[in-house]
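Dissemination and training. As part of the outreach component of the grant, students in the summer workshop were shown how a complex can be specified as a set of sequence lines and then modelled as a single object. The example used during the hands-on session is reproduced here so that future cohorts can follow it. Participants entered these lines:
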Amino acid sequence: MSETVSFTIDGKRLTARAGQTILAAAEASGVYIPRLCHKDGLNPVGGCRVCTVRVNGRPASACTQPVSAGIVVDNDTDELRSWRRQIVEMLFVEGNHFCMFCEKSGNCELQALAYRLGITAPRYPYLWPKRDVDASHPDIILDRNRCILCGRCERTSRDLDGKSVFGFIERGIHKTLAVNAEARLGDTGLDLTDQAVNACPVGAILKKRTAYRTPVGQRQFDREPIGTGVETRASLTVRGGEPGGGKPVQGEAR
Amino acid sequence: MGENPVGRVVEEIAREHGRERWRLMDIARGVQQRLGCVNSRAVDAIASWLGVSRVEVEGFVTFYSFLSTEPKGRVVIRLCDDVIDRMAGYEEVRRGFETALGISLGQTTPDGVFTLERTACLGMCDQGPAALVNDVVVTNLSSDKARSIVRALRENPRPERLVQRFGSGNNAHPLVRSMVENNLRKAGPIVFSEQARGEAIRKAVAIRPAEVIRAVKTARLRGRGGAGFPTGMKWEFARGAEGSPKYVICNADEGEPGTFKDRVLLTEMPDRVFAGLTIAGYAVGASEGILYLRAEYAYLRRFLEHILDRRRADGLLGKDICGRAGFNFDIRIQMGAGAYVCGEETALINSCEGRRGEPRTRPPFPAQRGYLDCPTVVNNVETLACVTRILEAGPATFCEHGTPQSSGTKLLSISGDCGLPGVYEVGMGISVRGVLEMCGADEAMAVQVGGASGRMVGPASYNRTIDFDDLSTGGAIMVFGPDRSIPEIVSAFMDFFVDESCGVCTPCRVGTRLLKERIDRIRAGRGEPGDIEELVQLGETIKQTSRCGLGQSAANPVLFTIKGFRHVYDEMVSHDPHGYQRSFDLNESVREAERIAGRRSIHHREVRT
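and obtained this result:
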C-alpha cells in the first residue's frame, strides 16, 4: 500500500498508490474525470465509458484501469470531450429523459454532465422506448424511463447492502433493470434506509414524498456544477462521504 | 419445493448438478429442455436450490437466446438469419415456414407445437439457407422444403426424422446422424493432415512443460480465432501465474457470421483438438479442460462425448496420462446457449461459471484470474489442432508453411457468391485473389474478410494477403458478386451486432442501434450527404470507446465500406429538392396520431420525391 508510482495526466505529474485506478488517483490529486457508472465504494465495471481516457495513446476506462508507473494519460482533450459528449447523447436518446419535469433535475448526474459537456440537444434520433414505472413500493419509486443501466443500484444493493434487490435482464438494447421479485419493487426487501436507494445517478430510483423539498435552483449541481470543487476536496482527502459511505474499496481495480 | 411438477423437475436437475452455482448453464438448459422454458416458478426454484437471488437467475436466462422465460413450442424452428443465408433465399424460406405454420416469425402455434424464430449464423453458410429444428440442423432450404418439413413434423414431431440422407464423413456417424456436409475442399498439411492418435501427447509428456511451451513458441504459433496472440506466451503467463488449480478452455463458440471451420474440425478431427487441449493442460499445469461448445452445434455433443470416453479408455485422458506420473487431466463439455459475445474469452469464462455472458474488466487477465478466479488459458479450436501437429511433427515442419511472421496454415470458411463454398486449409500469406481463384469466384465485387467484425475489401485490394501482417482473420471469407448491395450487407451485419451486444457499455449497446438506424435511413432513400460523415464519426467513437472486442469491431461494417466503397454511399444520399429535411419522415411521425384520430393528416405526403 505504501508503494507509490508517478504518472502524468494532461501533462501534469501526479502520484498514485500502486494498484489505484486512474480515476481514483486523479481525483485524489484534484483532477476530475467525468463518470456515470462509477461511484466511490463500488467495484468499477467500466460500463458507461464516459471516463474513457487515453493511456499511452490507447483508449481505456479510467475507473477500471490501474495506474502503472510512468503512464501518460490524456483526459481533457477535444477528442475525449467529443467522445464523452456522444456517449452522454446516446444515453439521452436511449431512454426517456425529460429534465423539465423530472424531480431529479438539479441533482441528476446525467443532466449535470450534459451541461458540463455543452450538450443542448442530442444529435441522434430519440429511440422512445416503452418502459415501465413501478410505484408499488410504499416509499420508493422506480422509473425505468430514466434508467441509464449504469448498474450502481445493482452493485450497491449486492455488495454494500447485501441484498441483491436489483439486477439486469435481457441483453443489448433490450437490457432492462429488473428487481428481485416476480414483478414489483414492492415485493422486494428494499428498505428506504438501503444505500442502493441513493445510488442512482439519475431519476430512476426516487424516494416518495421528497420531490420538491429543495427548490429547483438550489440543488446540488445548481450550487456547484459537476466536477468542480474536486481540487478543494482533494486537499481534505475525505472520501466515501456519500450517503452510507460504504466499505473502503475506494475504486481499487478488482 | 417438489410440491408442483416444475419444482420437482428443477429439484431433480439441480441435484444432478450438485446444486452448484456455477452449473447454472447446465441446470437452465436442462430445465428449458424438460419444460420448454424456464418460467417464473422455475426461476424461483433454481434460485432457491442454488442459493442465489431470483433476479440473478432471471438475468441469466434472459441473456441467452436459446433459453426463455416464456413457453416455447415443443418444436422450435430457428432460421439462420445472416447475410449469406439472406442471399441464398432466407426470406422465401421464412415465408414458406410462416405460411405452412400459419404464424409469423417469433410466434408459437396456438396448439403449442411449433415456435418459429430467427437466429444468428448457425455456421452453415456453405449450405444455406439453414435452420435448427430443436437440435437438428436442416440445410439447403427452400420454401418448398420448408412446407414439407412442417408437413413431416406434423405427422411426427421428432426432428431427427427429418434427416433422410447423412452428410459426409462423421456426419454419418451413428452418434451424429446429420445432413450437414463437411465441404472440406482442401485438406492441408497441418490441421487436416493424417492423424497419429496419441503421438503428440506421448511426445509432450516425454519433455518438461517448459519445453512444450518452447516448442509452441519456436513454431511461432499465434491464436487462430482472429486476434493472433502468441499461444506460447499465453501459456507461459498462465503457467507462471499464482493460484491453483489452473484451467484450459477450448473456445468452440464459433459464432462469427460466415465462420464454420471449427464445426468441420470438431466433426472430423476431434482427437486432434482434444489432444491439443490436453497438451495445453500439461504445459500450463492444469488438470481440467473445458470444451465450450456453442448451442448451435449441440448435434455434435454425443459424438464428442464418445470421443472423450474413448480417450479415457485409451489412457489419453485420466490419471497418469501416457505413463507420465502425476499428469492427471480430463475434459468436460460445457454447452453454450446462444450468445455470440461468449466467443470473447472473458465472456466465455463467465458463461462457463453460469453467469451472463458479459466480458469482464481487464486487468486481471484470464491467465492471472479466469475461470473460478483461477489462472486460465482460452484457446481457439484450430489453435489447439495446430498445437497437436506441432508436437507431432516438430516446430520446423509447422514453420515450413506460411510466412515468417505468420507461420503454419489457416483454415478458411468460404461462402457466398462462389462455385465451391466450404473449408480450405491454406498456407498463411495467401492473397485474396488466390482465395477467389481457389473457390471459383470470378466476378467478386467485394470480399468480407473476417466475418461481420472483419473488413470488406474490393478488387483494388485483392493483392492483399491473409496473415497476421495484413488481413488478420479468424478465417471467414464471404464473397459478394456484382449484383449485391453493400448497404444491405452492412445492414445485415448491423442487425447482428444489435442482437448480440451484451449491453454493458453505452457505445456498443446504443451506438450499434444508431448506426443501424442511419444505414437503414440511407437505404430507404432518406439519406443526406451529412449522414456519411456522421456515420464515420459515430462509428469511430464506438470503435474507440467500447468495452470489449465486440463493440470495438461492431462499427467495422460501416467504417470499412465507407472507406473502400464511398461512391456507393454518395450515390444514395442527396438533398431534398423541396428543401425538406429528408431524415424526417413526416408520415411516420404522424402515424400514431392518425391512428388515434382515425383519419389521415392533411400534411400526409402521398409520394416521396
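Chain A touches chain B at residues 44-50, 52, 59, 61, 64, 66, 82-83, 86-87, 90-91, 93-94, 123-125, 127, 148-149, 164-175, 178-182, 253-254 (CB under 8 Å). Students were then asked to discuss how this feature might be tested experimentally.
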